[in-house]
TrEMBL record:
Identification of the protein by name: Ribosomal RNA large subunit methyltransferase H
Reaction(s) catalysed (UniProt annotation): pseudouridine(1915) in 23S rRNA + S-adenosyl-L-methionine = N(3)-methylpseudouridine(1915) in 23S rRNA + S-adenosyl-L-homocysteine + H(+)
Organism per entry: Lapidilactobacillus gannanensis
Superkingdom in the source lineage: Bacteria
Assembly description: Homodimer.
Catalytic activity, EC: 2.1.1.177
The gene coding this protein: rlmH
Predominant place of localization: cytoplasm
Enzyme class: transferase
Record's keyword terms, sorted: Cytoplasm, Methyltransferase, rRNA processing, S-adenosyl-L-methionine, Transferase
Annotated residues for binding of S-adenosyl-L-methionine: 76, 108, 127-132
Job of this protein: Specifically methylates the pseudouridine at position 1915 (m3Psi1915) in 23S rRNA.
Matching Pfam families: SPOUT_MTase
One of the protein's GO biological processes: methylation
Compartment(s) where it occurs, according to its Swiss-Prot or TrEMBL record: Cytoplasm
Length: 159
């Protein structure tokens, strides 16, 4: 199975990079795990709605350019569908069983994902109504993907 996370911008903090590296190492026995970073669009602090839409559209094009037609895309979205870790784990197992061996997760930049990316997504995953920083989201998602494999293996990691 190939699992890819597409994120916007480089992970700046050393401790976030260390956490991702740890989960990448742990996941390597289950899947080919890859993080793809697309450049963020530099923008001033204060933006009009039209400027924000433009930033999201540009970042969205960069995200879409990294997705192949065969990839099953799960967009991380606050308004997406919440589910317990056990359900998420079963969905990952089912995707693989039913021929989706390329799963791509997409995390938006500081303004979020463009409608075009949401449109391309096969599913939307929410971690609840709280807004998380996109860099931290990469770490949390990596842990949940690792947890999913541990659940599917029946490991006591998941209690
Ligand atoms: C800072 S948030 C963007 C906030 C923006 N207002 C929005 O609604 O998407 C950056 C990205 O992190 C992800 N994200 C943040 N919190 C999330 C949550 N609770 N559930 C799922 N994804 C989340 C989403 O992909 C989002 O596009």
């Amino acid at each position: 199975m190939n699992i890819k996370i597409i994120g916007v911008g480089k992970l700046k903090e050393k401790y976030f990079r260390a956490a991702i590296a740890e989960y990448a190492k742990r996941l390597s026995r289950f899947a080919k795990f890859e993080i793809v970073e697309v450049p963020d669009e530099k923008a001033p602090e204060k933006l009009s709605q039209a400027q924000m839409d433009q930033v999201m559209a540009t970042e969205g094009e960069r995200i879409l350019a990294k997705i192949k037609p065969k990839e099953y895309v799960i967009a991380l979205a606050i308004k997406g569908k919440e589910r317990p870790s056990e359900v998420f784990a079963k969905e990952i197992a089912d995707l693989s069983t039913y021929g989706h061996s390329d799963i791509t997760f997409v995390i938006g930049g500081s303004l979020g994902l463009s409608p075009e990316v949401i449109e391309r997504a096969d599913d939307q995953l929410s971690f609840g109504q709280l807004t998380m920083p996109h860099q931290l989201m990469r770490v949390v998602l990596s842990e949940q993907i690792y947890r999913a494999f541990m659940i599917n293996e029946g490991s006591p990691y998941h209690k």
